[in-house]
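Tokens in:
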């Protein structure tokens, strides 16, 4: 008889569907039946189709029910857990974790994993007190990078360090790589000439992504690197401001803001170099997508980014447009063979450290999971 597994997430944002699929891929369908539950959001066939789990539930909880004590979702999840008798429950972000910690008080769940995706998630004293009260030895707390993990360890000092671990976001290479568009097709759709040298950025247009520094660096190299273009894929609150900055720097004709593009990572092959200028980044999953596309990468030395990059690409200080411009110029002037070598090194790093097989090896040796497996085999 197959064992039941629950993956419980806050919403169905694209990047989180990919993460839920990452965890679904951990479990052999012959041995496990996986259910993904979305705390918010109405039933959506497109989301259901993208979600790899055998069962997909849309709880459709309005904001008023996920504030404060969250009684209604706790009752609903308690009923579900009593019915399905989940062997393992994996929660993403704080609210699903809060709900399941309470559920676990009244329903036996052998192993629970709570994954946090941002820095500062445990800054609230209320959250720390709740975990101190509800925490049990069969609970594992994970951060998506060592930076997030270490932040959690400082806040949750009362939880043994071996139960506060790093659970990296990884890439499903088998699905991602074939989905990349051919270079010519990607360029045609983005209206890029075949002989342009393109720096690309895919990110929300938000303060922590700091595309203004990228624009200033690009402006600084335009007089030397004449056939360069900058493509920024994404939307956000700073869109109008960033467009105004591009105009003020006299680079508007060479910068394209595409707005939101579904499956934006598929256009990576259109770029000659990927640049991430963030001033805060818990992990930086888009870097994996750039690396699997074999692009040379320039990124900032903040939080989780150095862990992703390792010894591939180039790391620079955040907010330094002059430093960024210097490295962009170096990449532009480098030989194609040198850029190709940089891209190949990044590609291999994803395979070695941030692929589904690599994550499987790590996950099944986690202390709480290993204890559960040993008990099952006994």
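Residues out:
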């Amino acid at each position: 008889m197959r064992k039941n597994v629950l993956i419980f997430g806050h919403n169905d944002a694209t990047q989180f569907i990919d993460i839920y699929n990452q965890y679904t891929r951990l479990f052999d369908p012959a041995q496990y039946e996986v259910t993904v539950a979305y705390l918010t959001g109405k039933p959506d066939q497109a989301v259901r189709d993208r979600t790899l789990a055998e069962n997909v539930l849309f709880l459709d909880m309005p904001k008023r029910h996920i504030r404060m004590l969250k009684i209604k979702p706790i009752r609903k999840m308690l009923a579900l857990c009593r019915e399905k008798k989940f062997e393992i429950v994996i929660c993403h972000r704080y609210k699903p974790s809060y709900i399941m910690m309470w559920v676990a008080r009244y329903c036996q769940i052998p192993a629970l994993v709570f994954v946090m995706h941002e820095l500062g998630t445990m800054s609230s004293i209320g959250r720390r007190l709740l975990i101190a009260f509800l925490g049990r030895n069969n609970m594992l707390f994970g951060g998506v990078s060592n930076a997030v993990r270490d932040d959690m360890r400082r806040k949750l000092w009362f939880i043994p360090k071996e139960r506060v671990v790093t659970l990296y976001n990884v890439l499903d290479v088998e699905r991602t790589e074939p989905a990349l568009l051919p270079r010519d097709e990607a360029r045609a759709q983005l209206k890029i000439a075949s002989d342009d040298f393109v720096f690309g950025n895919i990110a929300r247009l938000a303060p922590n992504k700091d595309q203004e520094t990228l624009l200033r660096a690009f402006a600084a190299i335009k007089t030397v690197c004449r056939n360069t273009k900058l493509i920024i894929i994404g939307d956000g609150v700073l869109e109008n401001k960033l467009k105004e900055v591009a105009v003020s720097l006299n680079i508007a004709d060479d910068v394209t803001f595409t707005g939101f593009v579904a499956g934006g990572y598929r256009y990576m092959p259109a770029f000659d170099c990927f640049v991430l200028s963030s001033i805060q980044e818990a992990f930086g999953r888009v870097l994996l997508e750039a690396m699997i596309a074999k692009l040379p990468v320039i990124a900032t030395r903040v939080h989780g980014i150095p862990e992703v990059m390792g010894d591939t690409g180039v790391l620079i200080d955040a907010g330094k447009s002059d430093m960024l411009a210097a490295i962009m110029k170096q990449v532009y002037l480098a030989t194609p063979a040198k850029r190709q070598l940089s891209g190949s090194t990044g590609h291999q790093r994803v395979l070695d450290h941030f692929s589904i097989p690599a994550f499987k090896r790590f996950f099944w040796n986690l202390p709480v999971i290993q204890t559960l497996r040993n008990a099952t085999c006994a």
